[in-house]
Inverse folding.
């Protein structure tokens, strides 16, 4: 049963009397016959799993013959970059190379040429940096000479253009831009100057990439030298992940060549629809066939016949699938089983019969979005269709088919929930992106915190725009001025980490002397202080623990109309109903120390004396992110920064050891500073007590040693004087004087009498 071996991708076959088994360990594939890749096909797919930047394996052809390739996925911005390194990405110097003895360097990407081509062909854009630094070393020998350097690309093809230029044009970037040092040449290095210069640009014609070799032949003259650099292969965009077609009528369909999958086949795609039923795809043979359809709003069916009669694998969903949201389908058939997966629902698996026909023989065209009979057609969108790892270009085929349109709008309806923390999902033709402008976070999904380190005097003040010119003497009659500036809600969220109390975290004030303050009291409790004109001063204290314990705490303050809700560390701490519901004409929001001359109540003033020393993270007030504005757009946003403000990471600081943080941090670290007027928190106080005791013992021992040494030196000095006196009286008896010095050095303890002989 293992001859031939139906285990794919190097799987090891074993057998029993009735069947065979495949061991897929260390192959990078899984399934009954090691058919399915365990890796995604692109960095874009990893992004939609919520992955962050890092090294990943991608399998560009899925279940196809190409193996996985290790790449770096940069998932920090809207464009997801895929980077493939080679063996020489640094700057390399060259001397002594000529036409008879050229310098050559071949690049190894730890992959096959087919793997690299698959990555490049799947991407929207690819590039490699090409840099040539030269001193009396010509590059392309422009305008009409034979090039002295060239590079080799895909299919071992030699190329005579340099980075920044276009294929077929023997020029560098400065030649196209008409900015070369010597306008007689099309490259800076072709001027053949004695001083160093360079030609740098990007090679971005996909059909010629990747660069596989570079050749240099003009560094063998006197004082001739060059240095080159070819960057890694970088690509962004997955042309297939968003490749979609919209089917507008039940009789419309796309047709493709026959599916050849005699012993194994896998089909995967995304769909969205509002129709009750319809056929996604169908391929017929004389008797055999394969079909995938939505047979009812909650049911997907995969039907196949290899000559033994139809087999149907059906997955039923607890919720309707015709909700105009994207859903994922993967169907597979091999010699062992037939399976169907829909979204994350349990997979339906049917074992294949041990005897009978097993080869799927099809001969008609593959119909997508309909059937050969033009009945039960599909209404909706199909995206990212793969058959046995091969990508079908739905958009290109839809451009020439009536009743079918390329692309499919409405991605945010399915993927908008991936934009977190107030990020807004924005539609693109081939996908979407998360707009984090009004979020306190950043990154592709608005999930990366923006944090900063505050010192005692640090102040970040966000000034709100005045609604109208403010009169100098505002009275109650002038309140109409601020009618459009009434704030009926506050959605405040931030995280903090500190070891110092009291502290002023956040302060919001209005033109009517109302305010909202968030402070840490002396005992480490959290206070939210509201001053409204009707209610007066309201103080809400959360004393469930010491919040100045060098741990990261998350605070949410939400007021909608009269109702106030305060959450700390995702736990509801307080609810309150106001009699007054509006903040009128907000003037500014301050993080840390208030530097303006404001009339503060005593508790706020006491906290403000110390400001805030610690780490603040992801501060949000309604649609404004003041801390992010201060760090990312200090010149554009109406924000003022005073004192030291250094970008940091609160989460990583929390992991630091408390003792190390308080004793080793330099003076620039706020957690290393203490105020002589204010005792430390309990944890630090206990450590200080232990350290103080040790220091006291050490000082006592040092004083004892100094006293003993002083006594010894005094005795030694006296002995020395006596010996000098005796030496004068009895100069002939030098030996006895020397012995006296020796005896003095072995002086007995202080309690014994001392005699000098």
């Amino acid at each position: 049963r293992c001859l031939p071996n139906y285990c794919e991708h190097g799987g090891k076959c074993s057998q029993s009397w009735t069947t065979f088994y495949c061991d897929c360990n260390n192959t990078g594939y899984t399934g009954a016959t090691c058919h399915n890749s365990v890796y995604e096909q692109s960095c874009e797919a990893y992004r939609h799993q919520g992955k962050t930047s890092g090294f990943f394996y991608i399998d560009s052809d899925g279940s196809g013959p190409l193996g996985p390739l290790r790449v770096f996925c940069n998932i920090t911005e809207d464009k997801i970059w895929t980077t493939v390194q080679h063996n020489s990405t640094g700057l390399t110097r060259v001397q002594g190379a000529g036409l008879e003895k050229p310098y050559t360097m071949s690049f190894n990407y730890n992959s096959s040429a087919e793997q690299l081509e698959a990555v490049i062909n799947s991407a929207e854009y690819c590039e490699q940096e090409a840099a040539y630094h030269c001193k009396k070393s010509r590059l392309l020998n422009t305008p009409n000479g034979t090039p002295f350097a060239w590079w080799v690309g895909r299919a071992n093809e030699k190329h005579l253009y340099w980075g920044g230029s276009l294929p077929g044009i023997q020029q560098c970037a400065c030649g196209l831009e008409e900015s070369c040092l010597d306008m007689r040449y099309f490259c800076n290095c072709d001027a053949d100057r004695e001083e160093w210069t360079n030609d740098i640009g990007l090679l971005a014609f996909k059909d010629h990439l990747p660069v596989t070799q570079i050749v240099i032949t003009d560094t063998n003259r006197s004082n001739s030298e060059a240095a080159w650099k070819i960057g890694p292969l970088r690509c962004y965009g997955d042309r297939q992940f968003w490749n979609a077609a919209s089917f507008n009528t039940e009789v419309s369909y796309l047709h493709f060549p026959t599916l050849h999958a005699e012993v194994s086949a896998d089909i995967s795609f995304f769909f969205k629809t509002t129709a009750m039923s319809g056929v996604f795809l169908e391929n017929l043979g004389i008797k055999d066939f394969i079909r995938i359809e939505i047979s009812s709003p909650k049911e997907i069916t995969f039907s196949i016949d290899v000559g033994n009669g139809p087999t149907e694998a059906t997955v039923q969903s607890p919720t309707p699938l015709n909700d105009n949201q994207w859903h994922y389908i993967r169907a597979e058939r091999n010699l062992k089983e037939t399976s169907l997966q829909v979204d994350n629902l349990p997979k339906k698996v049917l074992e294949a019969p041990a005897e009978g026909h097993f080869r799927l023989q099809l001969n008609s065209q593959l119909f997508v979005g309909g059937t050969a009979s033009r009945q039960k057609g599909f209404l909706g969108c199909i995206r990212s269709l793969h058959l046995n790892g091969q990508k079908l270009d739905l958009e290109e085929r839809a451009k020439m088919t009536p009743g079918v349109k390329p692309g499919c709008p409405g991605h945010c309806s399915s993927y908008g929930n991936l934009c977190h923390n107030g990020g807004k999902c924005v539609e693109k033709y081939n996908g979407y992106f998360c707009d984090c402008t009004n979020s306190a976070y950043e990154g592709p999904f608005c999930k990366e915190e923006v944090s900063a380190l505050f010192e005692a005097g640090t102040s970040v003040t966000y000034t709100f725009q005045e609604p109208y010119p403010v009169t100098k003497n505002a009275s109650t009659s002038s309140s109409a001025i601020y009618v459009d500036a009434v704030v009926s809600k506050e959605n405040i969220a931030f995280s903090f980490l500190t070891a110092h109390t009291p502290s002023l975290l956040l302060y919001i004030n209005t033109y009517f002397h109302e305010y909202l303050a968030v402070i840490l009291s002396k005992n480490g409790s959290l206070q939210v202080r509201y001053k409204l004109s009707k209610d007066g001063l309201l103080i809400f204290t959360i004393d469930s623990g010491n919040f100045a314990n060098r741990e990261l705490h998350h605070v949410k303050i939400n007021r909608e109309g009269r109702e106030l809700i305060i959450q700390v560390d995702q736990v509801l701490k307080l609810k309150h109903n106001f009699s007054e519901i509006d903040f009128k004409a907000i003037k500014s929001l301050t993080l840390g120390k208030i530097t303006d001359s404001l009339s503060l109540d005593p508790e706020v003033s006491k906290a403000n004396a110390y400001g805030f020393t610690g780490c603040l993270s992801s501060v949000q007030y309604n649609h404004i992110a003041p801390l992010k504005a201060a760090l990312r757009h200090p010149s554009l946003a109406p924000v003022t920064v005073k004192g030291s403000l250094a970008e940091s990471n609160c989460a990583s600081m929390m992991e630091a050891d408390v003792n190390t943080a308080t004793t080793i941090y330099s003076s620039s670290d706020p957690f290393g500073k203490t105020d002589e007027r204010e005792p430390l928190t309990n944890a630090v106080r206990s450590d200080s007590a232990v350290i103080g005791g040790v220091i006291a013992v050490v000082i006592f021992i040092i004083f004892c040693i100094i006293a003993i040494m002083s006594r010894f030196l005094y005795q030694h000095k006296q002995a020395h004087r006596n010996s000098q006196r005796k030496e004068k009286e009895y100069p002939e008896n030098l030996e006895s004087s020397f012995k006296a010095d020796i005896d003095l050095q072995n002086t007995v303890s202080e309690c014994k009498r001392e005699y000098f002989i």
